[in-house]
Amino acid sequence: MKIAVIGGGIVGLTTSLELKQSEFRNADITIFASSFNDTTSHVAAGLFRVGNAFSGPTEDVTRKWVKDAYEYYDNIRKSPEAAIAGITEVSGYIFAKSNPNLVENRWLPGLVPVYRKAKIDEFELVGGEWNYGTFFTTLLTECTLHLPWTTLKLQETGVKLIEKKINSINELSPSFDLVINCTGMGARYLCNDRRLVPIRGQVAKVKAPWIKTCFYGELDTYIIPGFNGICTLGGVRSFESESNVICPHEYAAIRERCNKLVPSLAKGETIKHLTGIRPHRETVRVEPEQSPSYGKMKVVHNYGHGGYGVCTAPGTAKYAVHWAKEFQISSSKL
Ligand SMILES: Cc1cc2nc3c(=O)[nH]c(=O)nc-3n(C[C@H](O)[C@H](O)[C@H](O)COP(=O)(O)OP(=O)(O)OC[C@H]3O[C@@H](n4cnc5c(N)ncnc54)[C@H](O)[C@@H]3O)c2cc1C
């Protein structure tokens, strides 16, 4: 059986690995991507904090995606490979002044090891005046380490990686039996999907090895310590913007807000500016599609993870492979 996966970000790579760990392990798998080294996944801080608006087709399916994904990363965290795979545990606070709903998360309680209200004296840990807070412990996946680690695992099992833009899914027929479409924002054009909306983000990578805790404040302010003493400072959410230009004014505003929240950051050197486009879809699309134009080739979509694709990718990967298996069962009955 010949399978093409389109997309070399976190969704495409984890889906390919899931295929290799399923009954498709003997399939001939090729990953096509316009780029393997410059994806939205490379920009993400990689914190496992799924937003309240994140949504699959049903509540139960979405909950399973989140749980499967957490367990996937947590198993790597507990293994000797955690450091080279870029997975670690991190704790942090979310603070808000205006509204208690801002500090509540519907997916994390009962999943992560620690999730509780912040105590009043913990509001004093940072600058600003806060009325509400949550403390939690979760996972972090550093994609600049995790994507190369996953790529190596795929190559060891014979998966081929080809840098190539796919202009139409039809062009893969009849060479492939099954296509899994993990193109993130690229699906807007590949599938003419107008429900996929770009939400631009901008972050600064700052050397601040003394910061060991995450902090979130209002106005999309966040400080997330990653590997090698580098913190991700954010952020920005610009709806319907696909610009990858670094905006100096947004950088200045991010620094001002983050430095106010954690004043010691003022001494942190900015080493990189990054922008990325979150592929937002009200319902993340993980479903099969059969169309006469594909001929006998089957297609499963897996895109639209918005601002939560790093943390949820292994969960939707399992679900995409489930649909691929359903296709196999239905064709074997013909
Ligand atoms: C500033 C910022 C911070 C973020 N922080 C977090 C976070 O802390 N936690 C979290 O979980 N998520 C976070 N995210 C969201 C996360 O980055 C995305 O949800 C995730 O990267 C989406 O992964 P993906 O594989 O679908 O897309 P991408 O990483 O964009 O990969 C898409 C792939 O498809 C390829 N492609 C597209 N079109 C075609 C085509 N026609 N032919 C061939 N190849 C094609 C691309 O080249 C690429 O390889 C953040 C995003 C931003 C912008």
TrEMBL record:
<comment type="similarity">
    <text>Belongs to the DAMOX/DASOX family.</text>
</comment>
<feature type="binding site">
    <location>
        <position position="307"/>
    </location>
    <ligand>
        <name>D-dopa</name>
    </ligand>
</feature>
<dbReference type="GO" id="GO:0005737">
    <property type="term" value="C:cytoplasm"/>
</dbReference>
<keyword id="KW-0560">Oxidoreductase</keyword>
<keyword id="KW-0285">Flavoprotein</keyword>
<dbReference type="InterPro" id="IPR023209">
    <property type="entry name" value="DAO"/>
</dbReference>
<dbReference type="GO" id="GO:0019478">
    <property type="term" value="P:D-amino acid catabolic process"/>
</dbReference>
<dbReference type="GO" id="GO:0003884">
    <property type="term" value="F:D-amino-acid oxidase activity"/>
</dbReference>
<protein>
    <submittedName>
        <fullName>D-amino-acid oxidase</fullName>
    </submittedName>
</protein>
<feature type="domain" description="FAD dependent oxidoreductase">
    <location>
        <begin position="2"/>
        <end position="323"/>
    </location>
</feature>
<keyword id="KW-0274">FAD</keyword>
<feature type="binding site">
    <location>
        <position position="278"/>
    </location>
    <ligand>
        <name>D-dopa</name>
    </ligand>
</feature>
<dbReference type="InterPro" id="IPR006076">
    <property type="entry name" value="FAD-dep_OxRdtase"/>
</dbReference>
<feature type="binding site">
    <location>
        <position position="183"/>
    </location>
    <ligand>
        <name>FAD</name>
    </ligand>
</feature>
<dbReference type="Pfam" id="PF01266">
    <property type="entry name" value="DAO"/>
</dbReference>
<dbReference type="InterPro" id="IPR006181">
    <property type="entry name" value="D-amino_acid_oxidase_CS"/>
</dbReference>
<feature type="binding site">
    <location>
        <begin position="45"/>
        <end position="47"/>
    </location>
    <ligand>
        <name>FAD</name>
    </ligand>
</feature>
<dbReference type="GO" id="GO:0071949">
    <property type="term" value="F:FAD binding"/>
</dbReference>
<feature type="binding site">
    <location>
        <begin position="40"/>
        <end position="41"/>
    </location>
    <ligand>
        <name>FAD</name>
    </ligand>
</feature>
<feature type="binding site">
    <location>
        <position position="222"/>
    </location>
    <ligand>
        <name>D-dopa</name>
    </ligand>
</feature>
